[in-house]
Amino acid sequence: METKIEFDLKRLIEKAADFHGHLGPFLVIGVRMGQLAKTNLKHKTEGNKVLKVTARIPLLTPFSCVLDGIQIITNCTVGNQKLEMKNSQKEIVAIFKLQNMNSTLTVSVKTKVVEELLKKISQGISNEALAWEIASMPENQLFKIK
Q: Residue 6 pLDDT > 50, yes or no?
């Protein structure tokens, strides 16, 4: 039987996949990053007027899929200028800043996770299977948090 948290995460991932057009592991990474930031910063979606995100990622697929996951969870978008994208060579990092509270949370995907994902993708493992694998990973195995 699923717990409430698992059900909520599954629902958020499905919403993100509908928005993005397909389900994949990097989309789920973005969902998890956004969810982690909202939980740690005690931020509600309705109050996102003060949340801003700077994402440093390689600006090419599949890495850029992270952005859609972040957008769906935080409502910070490129269009409303609350999501800033910066190109990086390898790292996947999102800096979440609550401006009125002067609170910041930096979430980085562990290098080993990205390397393993790329290896599994090259072996032909499906995006959907990898997405649910990422969804079930403990945060401390997936991210470095500051």
A: yes
